[in-house]
Amino acid sequence: MKIGELGDLCGVTAKTIRYYESIGLLAEPGRTSSGYRDYGDQAVERLRFIRDAQATGLTLAEIASVVELKSSGKTSCAHTMALIEGHLTAIDAQIEQLTAARRELASMANRAKALDPSSCTDPNRCQVISEAR
After folding, report:
1. Which residues of 96-123 are buried (b: 16+ CB within 10 A; e: fewer)?
2. Are residues 102 and 128 in the same domain?
3. What is the model's pTM?
4. Which residues of 6-38 are buried (b: 16+ CB within 10 A; e: fewer)?
5. Is residue 91 in a domain?
6. What CA–CA distance (Å, rounded) separates 94 from 34?
7. Domain count for the chain
């Protein structure tokens, strides 16, 4: 199949496919006699895997590391699990940071409700933020 057909089938653009080829995520396909790229079912499977892996939050570099293991005939489950656990740890840290930021903003909002806007006389600062610090 041609690059446009492959892209339509997998939900990616031709530009994306060419990029994946350039970074080694997708093998260069054979060419037709007229010079068009000619993709087979293996390209469909690889592109679907890349798309699914990206949906989990893996980066292209991480996906490439999994693909490299698979291409060399090795198992990738332990490596993939380590990548996923790393992302889980990072997400948990982000959740903690966001929760702390939300608490601080909620506290500021509550304090702001009690402030008198007419007493805000500083020409450079808003009392809502100044009072919070």
Report:
1. eeeeeeeeeeeeeeeeeeeeeeeeeeee
2. yes
3. 0.75
4. bbeebebeeebbeebbeeebbeebeeeeeeebb
5. yes
6. 51
7. 2
- Claim to verify: residue 62 and residue 93 sit in the same structural domain: no
- Residue matched to tokens 């490439």: 64
* Shared-domain flag, residues 58 and 87: no
Does 78 map to a domain?
A: no
- Are 63 and 29 within 8 A, CB to CB? no
Residue 77 lies in a domain: no
Tell me: the pLDDT tens digits for 86-112? 999 999 999 999 999 999 999 999 988
For the stretch 16-25, pLDDT in tens is 999 999 999 9
Q: Which residues contact 57 (CB under 8 A, 6 or more apart)?
A: 87, 91
Question: pLDDT, tens digit, for every residue of 34-46?
Answer: 999 999 999 999 9
Asked, for residue 114, whether it belongs to a domain, the answer is yes
H or E element at residue 31: strand 30-31
7 and 62, same domain (yes or no): yes
Contact 98, 105 (CB under 8 A): no
Print the domain residue range for 110: 83-132
